[in-house]
Each structure stands twice: as structure tokens, then as C-alpha cells.
Design brief:
Blueprint lengths: L9 E7 L6 H17 L4 E3 L27 H13 L2 E11 L2 E9 L5 E6 L5 E2 L2 E2 L13 E4 L2 E5 L8 H9 L4 E3 L5 E2 L1 H4 L2 H22 L2 E4 L3 E5 L5 E5 L3 E3 L5 E4 L6 E7 L3 H8 L27 H8 L4
Parallel strand pairs: 1-2, 2-3, 9-10, 10-12
Antiparallel strand pairs: 1-17, 3-4, 4-5, 6-7, 8-9, 11-14, 12-15, 13-14, 15-16
Helix pairs in contact: 1-2, 3-5
């Protein structure tokens, strides 16, 4: 269980892999990377989004549902055994078959004794060209959660979740010290032709997560897949890799390259979280009495913003 003091840094590893065909082959590759991370002294290891399959959401094909795995199946058992064997905390995102016809984009969270602490089911589900996830995944129904582990308290979101400030804030408010955002993000051909578009997209992705680290005073870790994946219909995504970890001040303390597989390892001083929050007391100064509109899709609907209405609101005694 996590404690209030952290006498030693937590060695954290992100696995950046090229995916191949078939869950069994990808599991074998991931287990090799987990072994390598443990050999490097990692205590917490996080795999990329949907680590056990190619990114099949480039198209809508019912045959892809056969890639899904139940929580009670051999995939989860193998991961639990490896977490226990190495005494590591493991975050493993996978395509979950919850019930006949019901599927999620999920992550299994294992403690260092191999026990399954719980699941996170992706809450924000995209539906964009070549990212057709709404066809495959039901929205998560477990909420945003943080877990105590042997090496600290962690929170997990998945890919599209990382673009929402609410995700990071709710995890931080539950005491998460490291936010993990396993990812599958890259360039589609229409964007990849422009170096400027490529730069802008990557910068936006990293900047957003560095902002989460700053606003919440915690670590943010994002493992991404790498390599070009071609669907049976011929569409392609060039996954840009560049997995990274940002510290509580938003500085990137470790980053992988964008053109090859990588095992990214960094020592995270969880004691920095309190000192950073004392220096930049964003949690102290939150106006929790004034945030009621956050539970609305768009808070400007139906509001009169005329000058007369504004003056009346500012000067009710007039």
C-alpha cells in the first residue's frame, strides 16, 4: 500500500511496441518487454493501448470482435503471473469481452503480488476517420478510479481520455500520484504528408498531458505504440511512438524516439508531489463552489448575454 512518505524513487517503465497479427504473438512480445523492464529494475510497468492486437479500429469489421478477451481468460492470467513473478505493478490495456455482444476498451491493473486490483474501462470513445471506436466499445461504466499499489497510488485513463482535463483532475483528487495514459495515436496519410501538421499534432498531444501534470502536481506517463499499421482494406496509421513521462512541474523527464520500439525507464520521486503543490497551490485555490456548470454539455445554452442582462446581474440593487 502507498504511504505518505516515499523514501526511494519509484522506477517506472513504459513499453513502446510495434504490434503484429494475433493476440498470442503480441502477448509473447509484451511479456518479453515486461521481463526486460523488470531486469532494469522497474517496479511499475505500463503497456500501450490495446497492446495485444493491431489497431483494428481503422475500419468497422465484425470479425475483429474475435480479438476480445474476457477478464477470466488466459491473457489476464498470464499477465497476473508475470506481475507476481517480478513483484511489479502492471497496467495492461486490452480489448475486453464483458458479455456476448458487449465489449470495452479496458485496462487491467495488477499489484506486485499478481492480484487484479481492478479494471478501468475507457470513458471517452472517439469516432473519427480510422479511429472508429464507437463501433467496437461501449463507454466505460466504472468511473475514474485510483488504486493503492505496493509502490504508490496510480490512476489510469486510456488515449482519448487524456485530452480531457476532467479525467486528470478526478484521478488526482482521488490521490493518484502517477497518471498513466496508455495510447494508440498517430498520423493518417492525409496529415502525414505535411511536416507542419505532424509537428502540430504531436505538440498538442504532449502539451495537453504536460498541462495535466502541471495543473494537478503529479506525474503523467503516456506509452504509445509505434510503427505503421495497415488494415485489410488498405488504410494506414503511422503511430508516432514518442512515449514520455512528465514530472509534477510538466517537464519531460524521459522520452522515446518516434521510429522504433523502446523501453522507457525513469525514476519518479513521488515526494516531489507535495513540494510542487505547495509551490503552485492549484488544488488549494480551486473554487469548488463555482464549478457547477461542469456537469452540463455546454453551459451557454439559453443564457441571455445582452448588455442589459449583464448589468442587471452585476448591479442587482439598481
Amino acid at each position: 500500500m502507498t504511504t505518505e512518505t516515499h523514501p526511494a524513487p519509484v522506477r517506472t517503465a513504459l513499453v513502446q511496441m510495434c504490434n503484429v497479427d494475433g493476440p498470442a504473438a503480441n502477448l509473447a512480445l509484451a511479456l518479453e518487454r515486461i521481463d526486460a523492464a523488470a531486469a532494469a529494475g522497474a517496479q511499475v510497468v505500463c503497456l500501450q493501448e490495446l497492446f495485444h492486437a493491431r489497431y483494428f479500429c481503422q475500419e468497422e469489421d465484425g470479425a475483429n470482435f474475435a480479438l476480445a478477451e474476457p477478464v477470466s481468460g488466459p491473457l489476464i492470467e498470464a499477465l497476473a503471473e508475470r506481475a507476481k513473478a517480478h513483484a511489479i505493478v502492471l497496467v495492461a490495456p486490452f480489448f475486453e469481452r464483458r458479455a456476448p455482444g458487449l465489449f470495452h476498451n479496458s485496462a487491467a491493473i495488477f499489484d506486485a503480488d499478481g492480484s487484479l486490483l481492478g479494471l478501468y474501462r475507457k470513458m471517452h470513445i472517439p469516432d473519427d476517420p480510422q479511429f472508429m471506436e464507437k463501433y467496437y466499445f461501449a463507454p466505460g461504466d466504472l468511473g475514474f478510479r485510483a488504486w493503492n499499489t505496493r509502490y504508490g497510488r496510480i490512476g489510469v485513463g486510456i488515449c482519448w481520455d487524456q485530452w480531457y482535463p476532467e479525467t486528470a483532475r478526478l484521478l488526482a483528487l482521488q490521490g493518484a500520484e502517477i497518471l498513466f495514459f496508455p495510447t494508440a495515436i498517430g498520423y493518417i496519410p492525409a496529415d502525414a504528408a505535411s511536416p507542419e501538421v505532424r509537428r502540430q499534432q504531436h505538440d498538442a498531444w504532449q502539451t495537453m498531458q504536460r498541462a495535466h501534470a502541471i495543473a494537478n502536481g503529479c506525474y503523467v506517463a503516456a506509452p504509445n505504440r509505434v510503427g505503421t499499421e495497415t488494415s485489410p482494406a488498405g488504410s494506414q496509421i503511422e503511430f508516432w511512438g514518442r512515449s514520455f513521462i512528465a514530472d509534477p512541474a510538466g517537464a519531460v523527464v524521459a522520452e522515446a524516439a518516434g521510429d522504433d520500439e523502446a523501453l522507457l525507464v525513469a525514476d519518479l520521486d513521488l515526494g516531489r508531489i507535495e513540494s510542487q503543490r505547495i509551490a503552485w497551490p492549484f488544488l488549494r485555490d480551486r473554487r469548488i463552489d463555482a464549478y457547477g456548470g461542469l456537469d452540463r454539455r455546454f453551459s451557454g445554452e439559453g443564457q441571455d448575454t445582452s448588455p442589459d442582462q449583464t448589468r442587471a446581474a452585476l448591479h442587482p440593487e439598481a
